[in-house]
Each structure stands twice: as C-alpha cells, then as structure tokens.
Amino acid sequence: MSHLDIHVATKKFADKPVLSNIHLSVAQGEVVSLIGASGCGKSTLLRIVSGLEHDYTGSVTLDGEKLSGISPHIGFIFQEPRLFPWLNVAQNIAFNATSVTDSDARVTQLLAEMGLTGLEKALPKQLSGGQAQRVAIARGLFIHPKVLLLDEPFSAVDAFTRIRLQDLLAHVAQLHRITIILVTHDVDEAVFLSDRVVVIGNQPGTVVADLKMDLASPRERESTALLAQRASVFAALHSAHIV
Amino acid sequence: MHDALTLEKAAPVSLSARLWSGGHHANRLLRGLLLPALVLSGAEIAARYGWIESRLLPPPSAIALTLWQLAHDGLWKHIGASVARVAAGFVIGAILGLGFAVLVGLSRRVEELVDPTLQALRNVPSLAWVPLLLLWFGIDETPKITMIALGAFFPVYLNVVCGIQNVDRKLIEVGEIYGLNKFQLARRILLPAALPAVFTGLRTALGLAWMFLVAAELIAASQGLGYLLSDGRETSRPDIVIAAIFLIAVLGKTSDSLLHGIEVRSLRWRDTLETRKKRIRT
Predict the structure, then answer these.
(1) N or C: which end of chain B has fewer CB within 10 A?
(2) Cα B207–B102–B146 angle (5° rounding)?
(3) Rounded to an integer, what distance in angstroms lies between the CA atom of residue A88 and that of residue B218?
(4) Cβ contacts (< 8 Å) between B189 and chain A: which residues?
(5) Are residue A126 and residue A185 in the same domain, yes or no?
(6) Domains in chain B, please, with CATH?
(7) What is the pTM of this model?
C-alpha cells in the first residue's frame, strides 16, 4: 500500500469526459509534477485530490484511508495567492488557527522559513506578487499537511521571482519531507523540482508518460544530468503530440 | 525639506494658495465650507440691499438670530426628539436589513421565498405607509420610528445581499479547502468581504432615515425638526422653516461623517482609489 493513491475512472464536465483511467501512486515525501497541454484536465485532477471536486468515479486514498471531500491532511496552493485582503500576513497564515496548537509559534517559524519576517503586520495590498505567494504557501503549510497540492503556483510572477520561489519550495519540500503534487506548464520547473514528472495526454486526459527524475540533490539548474532529464520530458511531450 | 520650502514660499503669497495646496485635514474642512460661506454672504448682501424680499428669504443673520432665540426656547427638545427617532429607527431598520440580507445571501431557498416580496415592497413610497401606520399605531412614537426603520431597512438589505452575492468565488474556495461550514464561511469570509457593501447600505439608509423622519414629523408630531417646519409654515415664519432645514442638513451631514469615519477605519485594508487617496494625504 502506498502513501497516496489516486484513481480516476472517469471525470466528466457536462457529459464530456475530461479525465479517464488514471492511476497514480505517490510515495511519502515524493514531489510529483503533472504536466500537459492546457485543458488536459491536470488542474481538475488536482482538485479531485483536494476534495474540491466530488463528481467523479474513482477514489483517492491517503495512508489507507479513502478520502471523501476536504481533508485536513491536504493543503492547496492556488495559482493566485488568494489572501484575505482584510487580514494581515500573520492572520492570513493562521487562518485555520483552531486546528493547530501554539499557532503563534507556528506563524513565526513559517515567516522565518519563507523569508517574510517583519511583514507579519502588513496587509496583502502592501505585498509584492512574490511575497503574497509566499504567504499563501505559508498558509498552506500552517496546518502541517501530509500532502501539499499546488496549481501552477508560480505562473503569475516574473521570471526571477519564479526561480526564487522554486528554490524556496525545493527547500521546504526537503525540510518537511512533505508529499507534493505540482501542476505546471513549465518543463524546467517540473524537472528542477520533481522526483517524478507525469505527462497527461489530451482528450480525455490520461497518464501518457511517468518519468523518474534521477538527480542528486541539491539540484543545479544547468547540470548536464538535469538537462538530459529535461530532454527526456520534451521527448515524451513530443511523442504525446503536446508540443 | 521640499515641503517646508514650498510652504515658506506659498505662505506670504496668499491664504487661497495655501487653501488649495495643503493636504491637511483642516484645509479640507475649509475647502468644504467655502461654498456655503459664499452662498450665505451672497444672501446676506442681497437682503441688505433689498434685492430679495426678506419676507420670503430672510437674511442669514436673521435666521441665526431665530436659531439663537429658539435655543432658549425648546430647540434642544426638538433636536433631541428627532435625533432619538432617527437613531432608534435607523438601528432597528439596519439590524433587520442586515439579518434578512444575510439569510437571503446565504440560502437560495430563503432568497426564493423572501426576495420577490421585499423587492415589491421596496417600491412603495414612504408616504404610502403613513395612513396605515397611523391607523395601526395611533400618533405617538411607534408609527414614526416604524417609518424610519422601513426607510433604513431597504438600502441595507439590497446592498448587503448584493455584496454577499458578489463575493469572489476564489476566496470562498479557500474557505472550502479549510473545511469551513456554512456559518463559519459567512462569519469569516462572506461578511468581511461584503463589508464595503454593508457600509454603502448603512450610509444610504442613514440619509433616508432623515428623509423619513421629516415625512413622519410633518404629518403628526408635537416635537422635532419636522414639527418645527410645519409650525413655521403655519405661523408664516420662513426664518423658522429655513432654520429647521439648516439644522436637518447639519445633523444629516454630521451623522454621515461619523459613519464615514467608521467606514474608513474599518476598510483600511481595501486597495482602492479611496484608500490610495488617504495614503497620499497622510
């Protein structure tokens, strides 16, 4: 029995199948990227795992327990930060304070980890895009999730900020040994961050390639090993006619 | 450094230059008082030179004198009665409006049951309620406060329903991820997000409360600013009528400013033109 088992027999939107016959097993602490063309259903797959999407046939099992609906063990980071504008940074991070003991200490720790120390009293409108997304990640981590799901989390920030956020996520993943599933359009991001890159093919979406990224950590963006893995991902995308 | 320089240069030039360039609170107040001051002095001069008949439009000085005399003859009683009615009616109407709006905003079923009726009733003009309220409650305080509450109810109800229904789905989804139930969702996400609409509703309601007050007091009252208006008409005293209008305007503006002050403090988190202006000013 693995840590996280995802099985989607079919998922339809208005009678049109968007996902079919998907089986994914994810090990504890593994970082998995879902990559594929727009509209292939990878975000929908992530929403199924999160419990936001109920209307499908199949099952999601976490540590042997079948999930139905929202789980307190799963955190979700959206494409936009989606911070509550009326709460300051610390209040946003501790939004779910009731489920965590000693939430003040947890907030201080996360602020430090995310490089946000000193911003606890700032309002979301005073933050840059990168800072806001860090707060969102801190909020996702606040509840000590076993699994963190990220839906194109860095697609709305500039290239330099994106690189720094990727480094930060790699660091956090290693520090907490947390299981991560990441939806992305960015092959470099997928290769740099993941233990496995899963390619989702089009219409209806299904797994067309499942590639293991055998790379030493910490990873270097320009290493030959990484570039070789990148080439293998592109080859898979080509053969699936995605690029 | 730069500011001090411009001020030093501007000060000897003229008062008006400072009036327009300054961003201070006092200067804003002065700019707001400019137009009434001009109109009042114009009216005073026109009356002095006999350009307008003071029997119809008494000069501001005469109105000030009337106010002074009234102040020694029960004016506070009238003001007190009116303020108490507006306060009671506004609070009752606003609380009911908020309550109904939350129920309708949260539940499609309640909306289907209640909203069409309320949408129909809101078209009934305030004066149409008067005969019914007089029949039901007689002529004491109850019909007046009921009427003011009616006036305050609808703007709060309409704005808050709209505010709740327009809350960003993306924020609601964050609440769902954290497993909030319906009540927690309302308290922690929907109401805070709808707060700007709540204040819009409250301020409109307060303005309408003053309008409904006068309507109520014109019809049947022995106290209050509306009574003063009808008393002035019956005794052919335009100075009393204008003094009462002036007092209603001042009280209306003061109560709105108070509410606006609370609004600005509560909505500091908003990233809008309004809060941006505030930041530049301070």
Answers:
(1) N
(2) 45
(3) 49
(4) 84
(5) no
(6) 77-267 (1.10.3720.10)
(7) 0.82
Chain centre to alpha carbon of residue A59: 19
Residues A125 and A13 in one domain: no
- What does pLDDT average to in each consecutive run of 10 residues of chain A (243 residues)? 86 88 92 89 92 90 89 92 95 86 88 91 93 94 93 90 92 89 93 92 83 82 86 88 79
Check CB contact of A128 with chain B, cutoff 8 Å: no
CA B40/CA B249 separation, integer angstroms: 15
Q: How far apart are CA A124 and CA A70, in angstroms?
A: 26
Residue ranges making up the domain that contains A93: 82-144
Residues A137 and A187 in one domain: no
Nearest CB among A76, A87, A125 relative to B177 is that of A76
Nearest to A157, CA basis, from A126, A132, A185, A125: A132
The ipTM of this complex is: 0.88
Closest residue in chain A to residue B179, using alpha carbons only: A70
CB pair distance less than 8 Å for B170 and A86: no
Contact A85 B195 (CB under 8 A): no
Residues A65 and A151 in one domain: yes
* Domain total of chain A: 2
User: How far apart are the CA of B274 and the nearest CA of chain A, in angstroms?
Assistant: 14
Report the alpha-carbon distance of residue A111 to residue A118 in Å, rounded.
8
CA B273 to chain A, closest CA, distance in angstroms equals 13
